[in-house]
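step=encode ok
step=design start
structure_in=
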């Protein structure tokens, strides 16, 4: 599951990394690029809960096989694109297929690990995304440099095929071959329902808290190129640094979450304190356009991705403690889908601001949303730690 999330982020980050070259060659504006990202995000938003519910019902073995086959074909199809419509179509197909990535990761962790290791299991499965963002510049930059940007997309399609072959062997494990057992009644945990305000607070905290990821992933290369004068080759050499904070964050926040669970602290208070720390660490991102030092900017981007990973792991781990494991895929899908919807709305706005040279406004906007997400989550959940939601492994 780490490998599949890694591949999914290589696929989606290839366009972001090569954006300066692709926009120049195709004549697309940054605002149009924002709409291309939105096409992915809208499809990804819809697909996440759909795949999540499906994986909860039929299991991860065949569900993940179908999704990866679909998105690998869509990723390779980018090599044939040349304008707004063709890029948006390929991007939407990629987004729909990749909607199974994190529901599959969470479904696997919940289905195969004991409760006091699930947060770290989720972190491992999810961390392929940040690892993919780290290695994409290292792998894709030389391919694009030697053979052109279209060859880079053919490469991303090919590695999906390799994973599918591997998966047919790995997924023979009995815990993955069988359909998930229904355990809601036995566990005593409540099912996830849209009528529950806490589901909406979870989605807000996840989507708004992790919004800086989108700014750095999809806009980082353009910012470094247009604001700081970095070349495409220079960008490829350094753009692995911010996602390293994302990767480290997954494991650190996951470890801290499991410690809270093992200590038996009420979920709201335990995870609320950690989310508060992630909120504070998100704020300095607003300073990036005002700093002339290239390496200090890279440090701020690193810190923002570290903080954003906390919002992802902590909110998902909190929801896993509150709701039935029967709905693990759905919960992961709702979180990732909410984030993607936020990206679909925000990226054209960021693109328009970047076209006008208003990097300060774009970064400030991204830095405000984590605090807003935390406040919504806290307002809904504060004081319910004694309302019958247990922090014990059995719910």
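sequence_out=
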């Amino acid at each position: 599951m780490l490998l599949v999330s890694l591949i999914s982020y290589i696929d989606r980050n290839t366009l972001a990394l090569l954006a300066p070259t692709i926009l120049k060659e195709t004549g697309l504006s940054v605002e149009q690029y924002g709409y291309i990202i939105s096409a992915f995000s809208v499809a990804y938003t819809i697909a996440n809960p759909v795949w999540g519910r499906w994986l909860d019902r039929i299991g991860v073995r065949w569900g993940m096989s179908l999704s990866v086959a679909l998105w690998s074909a869509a990723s390779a199809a980018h090599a044939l694109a040349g304008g707004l419509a063709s890029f948006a179509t390929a991007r939407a197909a990629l987004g729909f297929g990749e909607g199974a990535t994190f529901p599959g990761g969470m479904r696997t962790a919940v289905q195969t690990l004991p409760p006091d290791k699930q947060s770290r299991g989720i972190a491992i499965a999810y961390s392929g995304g940040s690892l993919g963002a780290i290695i994409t510049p290292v792998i894709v930059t030389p391919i694009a440099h030697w053979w052109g940007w279209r060859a880079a997309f053919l490469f991303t399609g090919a590695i999906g095929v390799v994973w599918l072959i591997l998966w047919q062997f790995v997924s023979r494990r009995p815990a993955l071959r069988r359909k998930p057992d229904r355990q809601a009644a036995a566990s005593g945990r409540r099912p996830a329902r849209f009528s529950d305000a806490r589901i909406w607070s979870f989605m807000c905290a996840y989507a708004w808290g992790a919004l800086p990821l989108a700014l750095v992933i999809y806009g980082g290369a353009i910012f470094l190129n247009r604001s700081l004068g970095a070349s495409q080759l220079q960008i490829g050499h350094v753009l692995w640094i911010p996602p390293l904070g994302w990767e480290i964050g997954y494991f650190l926040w996951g470890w801290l979450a499991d410690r809270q669970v093992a200590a038996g602290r009420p979920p709201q208070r335990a995870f609320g304190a950690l989310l508060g720390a992630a909120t504070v660490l998100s704020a300095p991102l607003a300073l990036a356009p005002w700093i002339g030092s290239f390496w200090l900017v890279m440090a701020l981007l690193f810190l923002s991705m570290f903080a954003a990973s906390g919002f992802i792991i902590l909110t998902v781990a909190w929801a896993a403690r509150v709701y039935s494991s029967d709905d693990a895929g759905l919960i992961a899908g709702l979180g990732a889908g909410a984030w993607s919807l936020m990206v679909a709305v925000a990226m054209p706005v960021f693109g328009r601001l970047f076209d006008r040279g208003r990097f300060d406004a774009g970064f400030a906007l991204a830095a405000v949303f984590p605090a807003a997400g935390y406040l919504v989550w806290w307002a809904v959940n504060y004081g319910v730690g004694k309302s019958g939601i247990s922090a014990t492994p059995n719910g």
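step=design ok
step=annotate ok -> Confidence is low (pLDDT under 50) at residues 184-188, 385-395.
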